[in-house]
Structure formats: structure tokens, C-alpha cells
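Quick one before lunch.
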Amino acid sequence: MTDEQLVELAFEAREHAYTPYSHWSVGAALLCSDGTVYQGCNIENAAYTPSNCAERTAFFKAIYDGQRSFAAIAVVGGPQGEPAPEFCAPCGVCRQVMQEFCDPNEFRIILGRSGRPSKTYPLRELLPEGFGPDNLTTV
Ligand code: THU
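Model of the tetrahydrodeoxyuridine complex:
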């Protein structure tokens, strides 16, 4: 699975987005260490707060299935029904969910866009000094 293939799967996932309020559709493709890919889309709600981002949809599907080791996630997003020429970076809540399950030095976040090269960050660059399970080892 190449990064560009993962970005393509994120674009495919974006087609599933439920975005009647923001009209901003996002797709994610999460690559597990065993090679399995989980796709996710954002799912909005009339009460707004219960909305779920594409990244967390992908993670929660994978976690439910018993996956616990992850290599990378590709994310694409933009106005519903249009190409996504700009990067769509994960929100803070999604970065925190990644911190729970991923090594910040190893896990890669691939930001894709339509027709232009993607950009990749390790999680530690998008969530510096993140608080995760290792911080609770004295409890
Ligand atoms: N959203 C995502 O799904 N992922 C991101 O990386 C950024 C934002 C969603 C949340 C909401 O449904 C819509 O995009 C507008 O914020």
C-alpha cells in the first residue's frame, strides 16, 4: 500500500460523508500495521455536537475490530461535491485519539489533495508534547 493509494482510498471514503450542516466532506483511510485499511467519513448531526470526524470514524471501526497497531492515516477534505485542492488537517480531538493508539514518532498523517502532491507529518509534529497512555504509568 503506497501513500498515494491510501490517499485514493481516503477520497473514496469521502464519498460516504454525511454533511448536511457544514457541507464540508472529509474522508480518511487508516492503515493498520497488518496491512488492513479502514475507511471513515465525517458524520454530522442536527444537534451538531454528536458529529464525528472522518478520522475518528476510521479509528473506531478499526478498534472495534480488534486492531491496536497503526502505521498511517490519509485524510482529504473540502467543500461537499467539489474537488479538495487544499489540505484538510485533523482537528485536535482526532489528534488526541491518534495519540491514544499510536506511537507519535512513527505514526504518519498523510494530508492529500486533488491533483497536487500530498504532505506527510509524524503525529508528534501535529501534536507536540501530547498527553497519552504513557503519561499515566505512575497511576
Ligand atoms: N472534519 C473532519 O471530519 N476531519 C477533519 O480533519 C476536519 C473536520 C469534519 C467535521 C465536520 O463534520 C466538518 O468537517 C466541518 O468541520
